[in-house]
């Protein structure tokens, strides 16, 4: 890649900041130059994000139907899957799976709810009153 | 070891090599990022079907986190003081003390907890490296190698980032150089590290190196026959993200390594290395073509996915890299 070939696609997933990369100048010497991103990166990242959004929307429906707890919704909103969530919470898989059951979720104590809320970077209220909020 | 110098922020392609290059330069040993990356043997290819991320296999274009810090120590006889913490408060107090003493330190952090990252990038990735070099009011001054400018962070955000849980959990990991040998035989170190990289890339177990690239090509070929198009698109996107997102320098670290080979050629007065650098650049360009082909499939509305051109390009990447390492092995 030559310096004049470095992508400057101003991709929105980079939020206006620039990355550095190594490219060849006119003399065939490597040097760093700044890039505002490559369309290819944007396409693949947006596609991955769309997949999380789709799963989050499914989870929201399931919460309304009483088939899962809001934890699943926020898990996807924060771009995690069950394994990532489990590890980030420092719990076992079966524990998190139980917390996804609406009846278990309703009885969860404040401390564990707070821990989820902290991880999701939301208030504990957003977790507890999720159903009322989306109605 | 306190350098007594004012810390200077620089913009790098990759976080760990950037931090190590910055810290060493700050302490008087001026090594470029490609030199650090190459000396530590940072390049690789690995396709790891048994490590799942979002139900997808992990592939890596570089060695695992912390291997650059370890690599420069082993190769150059430098010593880093490294620390992990069980107690968050102790970690915080320690950091404050270092900053008060004017000691710039490297930290391992989770991108998920760094507010200055674009929201779209804030995944649970726990091995992002940065340097803390000062404080302004309540906020720490951060030299984040993949950012153009110095950034600031509130102490509680930094705490969260240092103590994120999960895969590659940082546990407060902190490091800074404490010893740099007065004389370093850079030439010998370069030869040794190139030898090691070549060996791994040509003769590693089947899921590593050049054979790993072919292995992945075969997996993609099979996937086209078995999996539904949605999954195929997701996994292609996943491969490209590992290759092109922040910190790869484009072309999955191949351009950084080509830059290293060029620098090495100058130092050793070996034209062969310069030729290898040109070949490695070609390999990087091919990887970018591969990424482009994947993105076209992902963007395409059709479910009729033709994977042949993608698989072909991937095999060409493998062929191109094989030539580079064979050339290096002959020299």
Element layout with pairings:
The complex is a heterodimer of chains A (135) and B (331).
Chain A: E1 19-24, E2 30-35, H1 39-64, H2 70-77, H3 82-89, H4 93-99, H5 102-106, H6 110-120, H7 124-128, H8 130-134
Helix pairs in contact in A: 1-2, 3-4
Chain B: H1 15-26, H2 33-39, E1 43-53, E2 56-62, H3 67-76, E3 79-83, H4 88-100, E4 105-109, E5 128-136, E6 139-143, E7 151-153, H5 155-162, E8 174-179, H6 186-203, H7 209-226, H8 229-244, H9 254-268, H10 271-299, H11 308-330
Antiparallel strand pairs in B: 1-2, 3-8, 4-5, 4-8, 5-6, 6-7
Helix pairs in contact in B: 1-2, 2-9, 6-11, 7-11, 8-10, 9-10, 10-11
Tell me about this structure.
The complex is a heterodimer of chains A (135) and B (331). By secondary structure, chain A is mainly alpha-helical. In chain A, 56% of the residues lie in helices and 9% in strands. Chain A has helices spanning 39-64, 70-77, 82-89, 93-99, 102-106, 110-120, 124-128, 130-134, and strands at 19-24, 30-35. In chain A, a hairpin with a 5-residue loop joins β1 (19-24) and β2. Chain A starts with 18 loop residues before the first strand and ends with a helix. Chain B is α+β, with helices and mostly antiparallel strands and 331 residues long. In chain B, the strands form 2 sheets. Chain B has a 6-stranded antiparallel sheet with strand order 3-8-4-5-6-7, sandwiched between helices. Chain B has a two-stranded antiparallel sheet with strand order 1-2. In chain B, a hairpin with a 2-residue loop joins β1 and β2 (56-62). In chain B, α8 (229-244) packs antiparallel against α10. The longest helix of chain B has 29 residues, at 271-299. Chain B is globular. The chains are: A mainly alpha (135), B alpha+beta (331). Chains A and B meet through β1, β2, α1 and α3 of A and α8, α9 and α10 of B.
Summarize the structure.
In chain A, 56% of the residues lie in helices and 9% in strands. Chain A is built from eight helices and two strands, in the order ββαααααααα.
């Amino acid at each position: 890649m030559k310096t004049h070939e470095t992508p400057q696609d101003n991709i929105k997933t980079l939020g206006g900041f620039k990355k550095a990369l190594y490219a060849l100048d006119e003399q065939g010497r490597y040097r760093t130059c700044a890039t505002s991103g490559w369309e290819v990166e944007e396409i693949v990242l947006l596609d991955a994000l769309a997949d999380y959004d789709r799963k989050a929307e499914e989870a929201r429906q399931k919460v309304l139907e009483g088939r899962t707890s809001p934890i699943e919704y926020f898990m996807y909103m924060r771009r995690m899957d069950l394994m990532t969530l489990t590890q980030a919470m420092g719990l076992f898989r079966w524990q998190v799976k139980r917390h996804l059951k609406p009846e278990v979720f309703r009885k969860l104590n404040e401390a564990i709810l707070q821990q989820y809320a902290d991880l999701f970077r939301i208030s504990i209220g957003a977790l507890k009153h999720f159903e009322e909020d989306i109605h | 070891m306190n350098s007594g110098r004012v810390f200077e922020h620089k913009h790098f392609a990759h976080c760990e090599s950037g931090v190590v290059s910055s810290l060493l330069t700050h302490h008087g040993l001026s090594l470029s990022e490609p030199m650090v990356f190459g000396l530590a043997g940072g390049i690789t290819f690995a396709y790891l079907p048994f490590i799942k991320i979002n139900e997808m296999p992990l592939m890596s274009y570089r060695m695992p986190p912390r291997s650059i810090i370890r690599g420069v120590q082993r190769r150059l006889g430098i010593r880093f003081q490294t620390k992990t913490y069980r107690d968050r408060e102790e970690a915080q107090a320690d950091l404050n003390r270092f900053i008060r003493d004017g000691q710039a330190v490297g930290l391992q952090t989770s991108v998920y907890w760094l507010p200055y990252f674009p929201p779209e990038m804030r995944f649970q990735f726990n091995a992002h490296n940065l340097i803390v070099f000062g404080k302004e009011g309540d906020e720490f001054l951060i030299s984040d190698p993949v950012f153009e400018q110095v950034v600031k962070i509130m102490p509680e955000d930094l705490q969260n980032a240092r103590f994120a849980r999960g895969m590659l959990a940082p546990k407060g990991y902190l490091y800074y150089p404490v010893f740099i040998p007065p004389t370093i035989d850079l030439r010998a170190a370069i030869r040794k590290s190139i030898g090691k990289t070549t060996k791994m890339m040509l003769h590693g177990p089947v899921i590593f190196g050049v054979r790993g690239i072919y292995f992945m090509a075969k997996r993609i070929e099979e996937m086209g026959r078995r999996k539904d198009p949605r999954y195929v698109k997701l996994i292609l996107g996943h491969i490209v993200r590992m290759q092109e997102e922040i910190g790869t320098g484009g072309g999955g670290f191949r351009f950084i390594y080509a830059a290293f080979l060029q620098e090495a050629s100058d130092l050793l007065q070996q034209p062969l290395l310069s030729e290898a650098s040109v070949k490695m650049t070609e390999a990087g360009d091919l990887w970018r073509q591969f990424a482009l082909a994947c993105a076209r499939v992902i963007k395409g509305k059709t479910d009729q996915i033709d994977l042949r051109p993608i698989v072909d390009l991937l095999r060409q990447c493998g062929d191109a890299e094989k030539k580079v390492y064979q050339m290096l092995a002959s020299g």
